Amino acid sequence: MPAETSRERLADLLVDPREDLDFEAKNWLDLQRSNDDKATFAKAVLAISNHGGGFVVLGLVETDKGIVEAEGRPATLDSYSQDLINGIVQSYCDPPFHCSVHIVPSPTGALFPMVIVPGGHRVPVRARRAGPNGNIVTNNAIYVRKPGPRSETPQSAQDWDDLLGRCLRNRRDEMFDQIRDLITGAVPQVEQPAEPARLDEWIRASFERWQGLTEPLPANVGPRLSHGRYSFAYEIVGEPENIAPARLPELLRASVVRHTGWPPFWYPTRDGIEPYPIDGTVECWLGGDPKTPVDQRDPAHSDFWRIDPTGLAFLLRGFQEDGMEAERPGRAAIAPATVFDITLPVWRIGETLLHARSLAANLFEGATTIRLVATYEGLSGRSLVSIDNSRHVWEGRVAYQDSITLSTHVDAQAIEPNLPEIVHPLLSPLYALFDFFELPMQLVVDELARMRAGNY
After folding, report:
1. Residue 66 in 3-state DSSP?
2. Residue 118: exposed, middle, or buried by beta-carbon count in 10 A (0-12, 13-18, 19+)?
3. Mutual angle of helices 344-363 and 441-452, in 10-degree steps
4. How far is the C-alpha of 186 from the C-alpha of 2, rounded, in Å?
5. Tens place of pLDDT for every residue, the chain, 456 residues?
6. Residues 258, 260, 262, CA angle at the centre, nearest 5°?
7. Contact criterion met (CB below 8 Å) for 45 and 89
8. Chain mean position to CA 166
9. How far apart are CA 34 and CA 57, in angstroms?
């Protein structure tokens, strides 16, 4: 079932409507007030989703003369909103998914709500709750479409074989798509949203919050990030769960991806630097640590981050390279604002994408996409180096541009298996600033594997 179906195709379904395994007609169900009607609708959606997707049309009834408009048409169709429909789906379906709702004209001009139910699930969709008094829908039951057509639980070995076979084919197709992307070098990106204003406004507001916190500090101390900085901001696009504020600390801690010693969006618990709620978000500023003198606070460990439970995250951090001015055993000191390490951006972007995937799984239901924006500032005059000498870099590769902004928009489910294929094209323009340095794909693959193995 395609994600988008043309209105012409939807209207065609009402020319001569017939109930089939992928098409079900329902009366004018009262989905706002009647729990029985909600369960009736949910059962149809559960069965059609397990069949592979299809349509549910409201306001029709089957008679001896065929399918006709049911009596009791409501004064308006406002009660059949997409938000209401998906609220029922989220409440009854596990795993949850997103249905699109269209108001479609019949050949007579009468309008009917039509729900497009997606298929393609890798596991059978089960009922996550029972209907009123245990009727209509049974908790944990799995429903399929059967000839008639009817929505019932599987009754035979053939019913189960058809259902599980369909799920296995979906898994196989997804795996083959991922292998194909790896072979062809395709990037598993999704179409850029036309209106990214929400994320842009979030970035602007986050910088304002950070500037307000750092303004009282003396100039040029570590938390001011005066030599350079980078920020990662992302938006999770999907259906957020309704989570009580008291659960947020637990979920945010569980979302931290710990592959290196200083993971992005680290959630400390020590007094003085623990995150705090503010304006509906959770905020953390490590640069304000009262136990460390302000002139000794390292820019790379003065993180400022914010997370909005509706799907927005922002992280600001100084360059690790700028905190190595002191002599190091066996190695020369590094002056601030002079070098740019070849491996650290790969690690940090990789960790942040994995964090976005983890946070989406903990705060959202169903499929999600991630729009990420990364900005690097204070690059001009820096030389590309390998701080730990694990990589050979030709000397003299210097950046002349001071800042760059990078962005990507990917399916959250694609991040884990396709991380190198996402990171490489995202970061290549950054590395090209250093005298046209071409970021090797093998470097990205190797460094992400080293990061994930905890070899830091």
Report:
1. strand
2. buried
3. 60
4. 21
5. 333 445 666 777 787 787 888 889 999 999 999 999 999 999 999 999 998 888 999 999 888 878 889 999 999 998 899 899 999 999 999 988 999 899 989 888 899 999 999 888 888 999 999 999 889 999 999 999 988 888 999 988 988 888 888 888 777 766 666 665 666 555 555 655 545 689 999 999 999 999 999 999 998 898 999 999 999 999 999 999 999 999 999 999 999 998 877 889 999 888 889 999 999 999 999 999 888 888 888 888 899 999 999 999 999 999 989 877 544 445 567 889 999 999 999 999 999 999 999 999 999 998 899 999 999 999 999 999 998 888 888 888 999 999 999 999 999 999 998 999 999 999 999 999 999 999 999 999 999 998 887 643
6. 90
7. yes
8. 26
9. 18
User: What token pair was written down for 443?
Assistant: 């470097």
Which SS3 state, helix, strand or coil, does residue 373 take? strand
Which residue do the tokens 């592979």 mark?
A: 52
List, in sequence order, every residue forming a beta bridge with 127; answer none if it has no partner. 93
Q: What CATH code is assigned to 7-182?
A: 3.30.950.30
* Residue closest to 141 by CA, chosen among 162, 119, 122, 163: 163
HSE, side-chain direction, 13 A CA sphere, residue 419: 23
- Helix, strand, or coil (residue 430): helix
Tokens representing residue 198 in the block = 């929400």
Compute the C-alpha angle 344/349/351, nearest 5°.
95
Distance, CA of 302 to CA of 253 (rounded, Å): 18
Q: Is the pTM of this model over 0.70?
A: no
Q: Where in the chain is CATH 3.30.950.30?
A: 7-182
Per DSSP, what are the bridge partners of residue 240?
A: 364
Distance CA 73, CA 108 (A): 15
